[in-house]
Model the fold of this input.
Amino acid sequence: MSRLHEEAVRIYLQSGVFRSIALERKRQDDKWGIQNHDPLVWFAIAGEEFGEVAKALVQRESVQMLRAELVQLAAVVVAFIESLDRNELALSDDMSDEEWYRGQEALWQYRRDSDTDFARRMADST
Done:
């Protein structure tokens, strides 16, 4: 296989993967709406999805099932990143870790208190 052909195959495969992730992100947004969770909540959600991948491996599920679980995991990680970017949760170089965490805690508390749909969405997600 020529180098050009290998590159074309790689791009073709990647585009299919990214399309699957984008479609899963749309499905998630359609189901749950835009999510702005605390980073620890996102970490727990991603952990649960990682567990689904592990379960598919241990149970020797089909390649299609394993791929579907991996796409769901990747889509959750993308949603996590989107939430961070949307809420500007970048650690500032001039803040101590303690100041940053206190600030993020205050931001998330404000969002929870000011978001009238937060409680409903959280109840629906359980």
In short: The radius of gyration is 18 Å. The chain has a mean pLDDT of 83.
